[in-house]
Amino acid sequence: MARLYVREVHLLKSVRTRKDNDKELAHLPRVFGHMPIELIAPMHIR
User: Fold this and answer.
1) Tell me, what's the pLDDT at 36?
2) CB atoms < 10 A from the CB of 5, how many?
């Protein structure tokens, strides 16, 4: 999902938002990389 976001939405954002998103997106694979997307629930995001 993160790759899809980067490919389709990321470049539409402002430079500042993209910079912030880049930092945030760097953490996603470490935290959620081992989980199938359909198993990620709101409690995992908190």
Assistant:
1) 92
2) 13
Contact (Cβ atoms closer than 8 angstroms) between residue 33 and residue 2: no
The string of DSSP codes covering 14-38 is -HHHHHHHHHHHHHHHHHHTTS-GG
**What is the model's pLDDT at position 19?**
96
* Whole-number pLDDT of residue 45: 83
> Tokens in use for 45?
């995001």
User: Do 37 and 5 form a contact (C-beta atoms < 8 A)?
Assistant: no
- Asked if 13 contacts 21 with a C-beta cutoff of 8 angstroms, the reply is yes
Phi, then psi, of 3 in degrees rounded to 5: -65, -40
Mean pLDDT within 1-12: 90
